[in-house]
Amino acid sequence: MEYIVPSWEIVKCLCRCIDYPPCINELQEILPSLETKMKSLTAVYEGVMEKVELEEEYQRKRSPAVSDWIKRVESMKKEIADLVLKSKREIQNKCPGTRLPLNCLASSKLEKMVREKMDAVEKMKWEASSFQELTQPQRPVAIKFPLVKTVGLDLLFEEVWKYLEDDRVRLIGIYGIGGVGKTALLTMVNNEFLKTSLSLKFEVVIWAEVSQHAIEEVQEKILKRLEIPGDTWKHQGKGERAIEILRVLEKKNFLLLLDEIWQWLDLLNLLGIPSVDSEHKSKVIFTTRCERVCRLMGPQKSIRVQCLAREKALTLFGTTVGEAASSAHISHFAKHIVQECSGLPSALNIIGTHMKAWTELHQWEYQLNILRHCPSEIPGMKNDLFPRLAKSCEMLDDTVKSCFLYCSMFPSDKEIFCDELIQLWMGEGFLDQYDEPRAKGEGIIEQLCFACLLEIGSFKQHVKMHRMIRAMALWLACEQGEKMNKCVVREHGKLIEPVQVAKWNEAQRIALWHCGIEANRTPPSFSKLETLFVSNNSIESFPRGFLGDMPVIRVLDLSNSKLIKLPDEIGCLVNLRYLNFSRTKIKELPTNLENLVNLRFLILDETDYLPRIPSQILSKLLCLQLLSIFRSKASEGDCTPVLNELKLLKHMSDLSIKLTNVLPTEKLLTSQELRKVIRQLCLQGCKDMKLVELSPSIQILEMNNCLDLEGVLVDVENHGGNGSMPQNIVPSKFPQQHFLYTLCQLNIFMCPKLLNLTWLIHIPRLQSLDVGACDSMEVVIDDKSKVLEIEQEVGMFSRLTTLNLYNLPNLQSICRHALPFPSLTSISVAFCQSLRKLPLDSKTNATTSLQKINGDQRWWDDLVWEDNNIKGILAPYFVAHDNNASSSYASQGAGCSSSTIPIFGI
Question: Quick one: pLDDT band at residue 734, thresholds 50, 70, 90?
Fold first, then answer.
């Protein structure tokens, strides 16, 4: 009886269904039809998707109608699945004891929805059958850009492409001199996306030239490439534009190519570029001319684009010129033209295009002469190449730009000694406003090297200019070619005739390298001349009156010549600030030199024929700041009178000197006025000198043939000296806080009583160490306890780049434990047969910078190593001495002059 439903419940169900009689059974009957139709639609959908995905592999994309249909089908599948589930539940929900639905209204609505979905499914199947094409040509991921002829970029392209395929690399920096091919390399990367499947990795490749455009212009390029409607950003500020770019790019995997960045760029806040270290696979590649900017941008990988090597440069030039360049009678001149371009691709292309017009030998010879002496006359140089290269100067301030243009006065490819260059800048007055002008000059050189306007020479203390950069700089110095005789540079020329000299009467600067000057009856007039270089030539004397009419000259450099006598009129150059006649054959100084009351820099280095400096000349040069008689005969013997005169000069701040006598040495090193201004000191053959007390300002120290020298004292606290030379030998240990931070170069030769150089633990910034013929030396650093402490505190030898040891028969150890040597580039050892161990182990940092270990093969084979791995690590750097090199080391002996001391790394 419990299964009998009360009649009242049945009556209520019947009453509910009176208004919906069809719904009683139809929902249950039609639901399977809906499921069948949906299965049929799913099969059609899968067929469409298979074809679409196949066509997408061939760089096509879904048509808008197909894309919309696919989305609607996927939505329909979910909706029908939900509807079928609800309907089945409703079918099961019946009045107790009957086949009637418990809720007829709900069942009726579901039945209506099922019928509507059946119609919709049929309609979607019909739509699929009406598609003409499932896909259409895809909008290219990248936009193709024209590409100039390139040579030598293939390896760099492969390197960039490797980084693009590496998900760990998100930001790539490319830097190098202007015109070297950075943009061409970036173009190669961009265009490759038009023909490779890797383009599927990025949805869009965006190219934007930054250069010196306003940020709004760069943003506009990005917005247009992203096809963002202009009405959404045209009237917005750069902040709102950045937000709009960010909104779109956050949803995409993109590759952004930024060409010619001039300064650090905040990609997120200025351009709206999402962080490329996020979970997305987007990447950014940028180019810049400045290495420092490249570093500031923080790329995971940096690539420097170098100028082409000779053979590749010839290939590019020949490709541009055509057949003429390869003909037998012209190829000789073609090689010289390529040499003048120094491997710069843009110069090779421009000049190569110009040379297409010339086929005769004499024409090529003439054009080569023009390129060497007046390159701005070649079409394309002053209108294209030079302005392009000159963009690198636009970010320089006035001081740095003046210093840069000044470098154009030196010969092509000349390696310029940095110290000499800075002193010239100081002599010109470029650095007068700075408290530490020498340090400022060093910073300017570093800045110009980072900007790829100067290049590091063979050694770090030298720089040079690329030939085309120099040509551009000289063009700028001559006011973009408008005043060609404003700055005159002649090199490797013949005798200069008076008619040529007469054309220079308006010159501001004249530089004559390897040139002679013909005498003239009428002396020339240089009323505007501020700078005169007459260097590296065979001139023994100047034509009479040549220097007579130079009322505003400030810098006179007569160095590196056979000059025997200074012209009498030199005493009339009262505005002269800088005078250099180093490495000449000058035999005496004219007494009227005392008239140069504005002279600040007097440089007499390596004047082997100058016996002395006349008394009462130096003391009258009241503005003198720098005197350099380094390795000069003028300071040999008892030069105490010279030192006495120098003590009277209130502005004296920089002294470089060679001393050969213990009396002036004691005078110099105990003088409160002088010891604090010593920058370079050469001590040669100073008998009875047992101890040297270093001054706190010294940067370069040479000690040669000091037979009684037993030790060196590092003076840090006693800046003024104590009035007498201490007699005790340098102690083995010093207070840990005593360090001499100025000394960077040390050369010691033939000091047979020196046992060690332990005092070097207090010289943390030493860059070059050169020790030879010290017979008693058994160890360089002999301090077991202090070395580790000091190395940890200041990084002992952390800046040492060059280490040379030779003719040290008893040397057994450099240091008794391994040191990092993070900057070491060169080690050279000769005739040190007792040295069986180098202070290096497998943990050393030297391998990151090391370029060469030079020594005898037997010595190398007999070395004992700190661990088993280090010899294998260092073996690739070893280069065996040849017999001639070893003999040259052995030949150094007593009596050699300071100028013959082997000096490495200068």
Answer: very low
